[in-house]
Amino acid sequence: MSKLETNIIAPSTGTNLTLGESGDTVALGSNASQTIAVNTPLVAVRSNTEQTISTGTDTKVQLDTEMIDTNNTFDSSTNYRWSPGVAGKYYMTGTVSINIASAGKYLQAKIYKNGSMASHQQATAEGTNATYTVTVDFLDDNDGNDYYELYIRHNTGGNSSTNVHAEALYTRFFGYKLIT
């Protein structure tokens, strides 16, 4: 077996560098480490308590339970917002769910960026007394100082309020940095 000692290995042509051949195993030496691309920061949060949402107003969803928070970047106690703190391209999705009693009424899920609505999705009730769920997605370039929040809005009417379903299946927010 030969030993190659060098500080830099680069391909002689093109941009691909291959170590080994099909079926080979490449092993790291003792105390050596590797760096691979990962989708972090990563956050998955949900609502664990019922929240009353007044009709006709954008209301921030109180995402108070962290399921995953790789970099401790989600504030689940006061602001209910995600501040990844690392520049890059991010994918986010948020889901809200409420009961709607009347056909023709709507439910909206919104992702806010830095305090302003950046993406939204809407469902309109087709029947009566049913649970409606809306999921909103958002792809964004974060400069390292941006933050995101999940909002809900409905128009179920009058002075009535509707409770957000406090289960991971119904009220949640996920986000992660994309490998680029």
Description:
The chain is mainly β. The chain has one domain: Jelly Rolls (Sandwich). Helices cover 0% and strands 44% of the residues. The chain is built from no helices and 13 strands. A hairpin with a 5-residue loop joins strand 5 and strand 6. The protein is elongated, with a radius of gyration of 23 Å. The model has no long low-confidence stretch (mean pLDDT 88).
Structural class: mainly beta
| Unreliable spans | none
Count of structural domains: 1
Order of helices and strands: EEEEEEEEEEEEE
The CATH topology name reads Jelly Rolls
* Amount of beta strand: 35-45%
Tell me what the CATH architecture is.
Sandwich
Label the overall shape: elongated
Number of helices, where a helix is a run of at least 4 consecutive DSSP H or I residues: 0
Radius of gyration computed on alpha carbons: 23 Å
Strand element count: 13
Report the sheet with the most strands, covering strand number, pairing sense and barrel closure: 5 strands, antiparallel
What's the end-to-end separation, in Å? 37 Å
Tell me roughly what share of residues is in helical segments.
under 10%
Question: What is the typical, i.e. mean, pLDDT?
Answer: 88
